[in-house]
Amino acid sequence: MPYPGRPVLDVLPEFVGTASTRPTPQQRERLLAFCAEQYRAGRSIHELAELTGRTQSAVRRALDQAGVPRRGRGAPQVS
């Protein structure tokens, strides 16, 4: 029996259609704030990419611009 897949997240309404066009400064600020807040709360870059309709590279750039230090790869070690 195969392992069930993770559900794919839908793009949030505030970010629908904003990835394909040149974002306004307000849209860019909202993206940076959202990514920083959600990443600090524990969401992954992959999840943020799905929620914002961006690529993982775009989310990484947004986190870098927001000054958010990124976590290491993989799951945290269990002690």
Provide structural commentary.
This protein is mainly alpha-helical and 79 residues long. Helices cover 43% and strands 0% of the residues. Helix 1 (25-40) crosses helix 3 and helix 2 (45-52) packs across helix 3 (56-65). It is globular. The mean pLDDT is 90.
Structure keywords:
single chain; 79 residues; mainly alpha; 3 helices
Spell out the blueprint of helices and strands.
Layout: H1 25-40, H2 45-52, H3 56-65
Helix pairs in contact: 1-3, 2-3
Mean pLDDT metric: 90
The helix count comes to: 3
Estimated radius of gyration: 14 Å
Beta fraction of the residues?
under 5%
Helix content: 40-55%
* Main sheet attributes: strand count, strand direction, barrel closure: none
Shape, principal axes of CA atoms: globular
Task: Give the tally of β-strands.
Answer: 0
- Residue windows where pLDDT falls under 50 for at least 5 positions: none
Order of helices and strands: HHH
Termini separation (Å)? 30 Å
The secondary-structure class comes to: mainly alpha
